[in-house]
Amino acid sequence: MESAATADTLLAGACVLFTLCMFSAGLSDLRHMQTTRSVNNIQFLPFLTTDVNNLSWLSYGLLKGDKTLIVVNAVGAFLQTLYMLTYLHYCPRKRTVLLQTAALLGVLLLGYSYFQLLVPDWTSRLRQLGLFCSIFTISMYLSPLADLVKIIQTKSTQCLSFSLTVATLLASASWTLYGFRLGDLYIMVPNIPGILTSLICLGLFWQYRQVQEKSYSLLQT
C-alpha cells in the first residue's frame, strides 16, 4: 500500500513538473515581447486556446476534487493570462485581441451557465465537462500536424520547438499514466494523441537533422 501511494505521489509530481515545463515555454515569448516591445512573429491564439484549456481542466479538477489537476491548471491559467496581458500591452492592433478575448469570456460564461443551470446532477456535469475537456485537448495536440506539409516541403523543423516537443511528450505520457491509475478516461485518452504527435515531431527532427547540419556547414564555409 505504501509503495503504491509513493508511486502515485511521484506520478502526480511528474505530471505537475512536466506540464509546467510545457507551459513555461511561453516565457521565451514573454521575454521577447518585453525586450523588443513588440509582438513580432508571436501569435495570440495559442495563448488564448491554452488558457481556455487550462480553465476547463481547472473546472474539471475542482468538480472532481483532484488536487493535481487544480494546481497544474491554476498555474497554467495564470501564466497564459500573463502572456495574454503582455501581448495586449505591446500589440498595435488591440481591437482584434480584445474581440478574441471577449469571445473567450463569452464562451466560458455560457459554459458556466449551462453546467450550473441545466446540468444540476454532479455525475452528468462531471461527464459532460470531462468530454468537453477531452475533445478540446485532442484538438490542441493534433494542431501541430498542420505544419507537417510545410516541414516536409522545406525539409526544415525551424517552426517546431525541440524542447517543447520533449516536454509535451513527457507531460502527455505522465497524464496518460495518471488517468490510467485513476481509471479516468477523460484524462487518459486525450493525452494519447499528445504522445503520438510528439513522437512524429521527434521523428521529423531526426529525419531532417542531417539536412540542417549540412546547410549549417555550407553557411560556415
Automatic annotation (TrEMBL):
GO molecular function, one term: sugar transmembrane transporter activity
Top-level taxon in the UniProt lineage: Eukaryota
Subcellular location: Cell membrane; Golgi apparatus membrane
Any matching Pfam family: MtN3_slv
Transmembrane parts of this sequence: 6-30, 69-90, 97-117, 129-148, 160-180, 186-206
InterPro entries noted in UniProt: SWEET (IPR047664), SWEET_rpt (IPR004316)
Annotated membrane topology: Multi-pass membrane protein
GO cellular component: Golgi membrane; plasma membrane
Keywords, in A-Z order: Cell membrane, Golgi apparatus, Membrane, Repeat, Sugar transport, Transmembrane, Transmembrane helix, Transport
Function: Mediates sugar transport across membranes.
Protein family membership: Belongs to the SWEET sugar transporter family.
Subunit structure: Interacts with TRPV2; the interaction probably occurs intracellularly and depends on TRPV2 N-glycosylation.
Designated name of the protein: Sugar transporter SWEET
Gene name as annotated: SLC50A1
